[in-house]
Every structure is written in structure tokens, then in C-alpha cells.
Amino acid sequence: PRTGIQGSSPCLQLPADQVLNSGAVIFHGGFDQQGCPLVVFPAEEQSKLTTDLAKEDVVSFIKYFLYLHNKYQEKESLISVVLDLRQATLTAAKSIGEALLLLEQCKRTIKTIYVIQSKKKDVHKHLLKVLGLSPSKKYNSAPYKQCVLLKEVCELYNYIDRSQLTAALGGYLVYCHRSWVQFIKEIDAFVKEFFSVVHRLPS
């Protein structure tokens, strides 16, 4: 039987609490000017990508919430990704890059990647390799069709209205991650209970 918020895709389960609560990757409801939903890797939580989460966790998180977004749309949407790498460590940059490569392996999911670049040479060099913008023996990937490299966060506003960005990126979208997690879990529990009752009804 089909249970949970995933409906017709039983393989898509609500991510584990550790993944949801981490805040290392968020789907906060904002959109870029192309109309693509935004997936953001907040700078202040990037260390958790190397200690608490595997790249598979990041991929399952994005797939799940993109599925929910697309479920009632006439046309499936791709995502746009915002990477704030200004203070990122090389390890965190590697974790993000490898997660995005894994996400794209089975099916194209990303429309545009907006990168606020690091001033650290090793991070910048690695990023170019992962994105296919410079030669790499390890990352044999084609360049992303749209990759926007930004030197300053204010340049991001040419592509994403500030009303669609959180305060950490200079925007004014009100977003509380803890409240978002609580809401998502309550909705998931409600839908599971609904389907449980429906399946117990006589046919």
C-alpha cells in the first residue's frame, strides 16, 4: 500500500531526523528569477557535511523535497543551487561537489548553480574541477549548463530577488529551520495516519 507523503513513490521516504535537523542543506521555499526552487547550502552549517551527513543523505534530501514540489505541478521543475563558499573549507567544498555530482548521475536535476566563490585558492581550484570548468582526471564530468560564478554576495541579486533569500545571504525571506522541520514532520505524520485509516476501511 502507498503510505506517507510520498504517495505514488514509496521509495521516497522522509529523510532521517539527523538529516532534517542538520540545516546543512535547506529547501526554504525561495525561487530564482527562472522560477526554479532554490536549494541552499548555508555557510554556517557546512561543517556538518563532513561530520554528520554522507553525500547520499544530501541527495535523498533534495530528491524528496523536489518530488513534493513537483507532485502537483503541470511540468516538473529543476532546482537551482546556491553555494556560499566564502568561508568554506576544502573538505566541505569536496562534500558539496561530490553530492551534486551524485545527484546528477541518474537524472538531470539542476538548472543553475550560483556560486559565491571562495578566496581560498585550493577551494576555488577544486570547485572548477568538480563543476567541469577545468580539466580533472578524478571528476570526468561535463560542465553544468548554467554555472554562475560570483565574487560578492550582492551579485547574486541579479539572478535571485532578495525576497527569496534568507538574511544570511542579505535577503529578507523569513525562515526558521527548526519550525520548518516541525511542520514537515507533522504533515508527514498526518498523511501517514490518513492512508492508514483509508486502508482499514472496507472496500
Automatic annotation (TrEMBL):
It holds the Pfam family CRAL_TRIO_2. The keyword Ligase does not apply. It comes from the Eukaryota. InterPro entries: CRAL-TRIO_dom, CRAL-TRIO_dom_sf, RhoGEF_Guanine_NuclExch_SF. Keywords: Guanine-nucleotide releasing factor. Residues 52-176 form the CRAL-TRIO domain. GO terms for molecular function: guanyl-nucleotide exchange factor activity. The keyword Protein biosynthesis does not apply. PANTHER family: PLECKSTRIN HOMOLOGY DOMAIN-CONTAINING FAMILY G MEMBER 4B-RELATED, RHO GUANINE EXCHANGE FACTOR-RELATED. This is CRAL-TRIO domain-containing protein. It comes from Lepisosteus oculatus.
